[in-house]
What we know:
Layout (H helix, E strand, L loop, with lengths): L8 H13 L1 H11 L11 H8 L9 E5 L5 H10 L2 E6 L2 H10 L4 E5 L12 E7 L8 H11 E13 L13 H8 L3 E6 L1 H17 L1 H6 L3 H10 L7 H7 L1 E8 L1
Parallel strand pairs: 1-2, 1-4, 2-3, 4-5
Antiparallel strand pairs: 5-7, 6-7
Helix pairs in contact: 1-5, 2-8, 3-4, 6-7, 8-10
Amino acid sequence: MDKKELLFYDAYEAFYGMAKKSNAFQKFCKDAFGEDFSQDGFSNIEQINMILQYIPQKDNVRILDIGCGNGKMLGYLQEKTEAYICGFDYSEEAIETARFLFPKNSEFREGVIGEIDYPEENFDVIISMDTMYFAKDMTAFVNQVKKWLKERGVFFVGYQEGDVIPKTENMHTTMLSKALVMNGMKYEAIDITEQTYELLKKKRISAIAHQNEFEAEGYRDWFDMLIGQTECATETFEQFKEKMARYIYVIRK
């Protein structure tokens, strides 16, 4: 498969190149999200810390991040738990950075959802933050994830509707929830739409605070992207939730 045909491939190659070089972007991430994980979405420190309670307190824990980017989120989880971390991403730029930043007790691979594979019952926790919509067949991919999980393992998903994936009625009508049911996987879901709205407002304020630094680095286009991404936060919450929704899913094998 030509990776350039995949969703947002060229944009993400450029994004991770910028994230590696831009001090302005790193400062923006810390201000907006509480920590720099090179976020291009909504994964703030509170959401990432939620994952910690599902990581077993034992030896030889293995975590997989689907669409791991440059590995910074996995690196944070490893620091907190000493887990062996694995991640894959279709971005060559991102994986090259992840391997450089986190060379110990780790495995980072270039790979595409639906094509990459791992041994069965290999992971205690599998994470997907804003990456499930890259699956061409979500039901088939959930089945793969189920096989990769150890017995009693946890699949933790941050899932957005209203941008790449059309908004449905609620957390139980999403493409993901239907794929989980089809695979016989039980889940708990939390609606964090309002928190996401507040985060978007913070993201917009943080971007504006660093505008001059973005421009001085020659990254005005990335500043403009952040402003465009957060335009919806200038609406009322009632208007926002008519178009957008965000959920956390905790799925157990």
